[in-house]
Amino acid sequence: MIDRLRQIIRDVPDFPKPGIVFKDITTLLAEPETFKRAIDLLAERYSDKGIDKVIGVESRGFIFGPAVAYLIGAGFVPVRKPGKLPAETISIEYELEYGTDTLEMHRDALKPGEKVIIIDDLIATGGTAAAVAEMVGNLGAELVEMAFLIELTFLEPRKKLEGLPVFTIIKF
Does pTM top 0.90 for this prediction? Predict the structure, then answer.
């Protein structure tokens, strides 16, 4: 099944800018059996880990995170770009390959000691994941693992995540 998941993900050259080959998961999402299997692979991994909250990173983490949270009986916490969450937030600015970005989470989204996982569709350089992990720590929650459908190994994301638990299903 992992080979099928790998095959169905479409490469889109020169998106969002020249020289980048975008890994498009919409083809996987459109096929019910592969979409279901991708969610099941993630949920099976965490079904007996006592996870309290699943964190999904805007925007494709909002596709996988709530489905996994539902299946394992956990809450869901969205991490968003600035100005999108209505209550008091904490924020973190982090470095990208070409500039900086900021993410926010509701200040009351996590309680100290809660067991959480971070889910997103893809990990490239690791900067976003590292920033979200830092917010989890700042709120006193326990990061059990970060899970991704796709890892772009040639960008060496685990260098930025050294010492942090990372799981990926498909490596390119």
Answer: yes
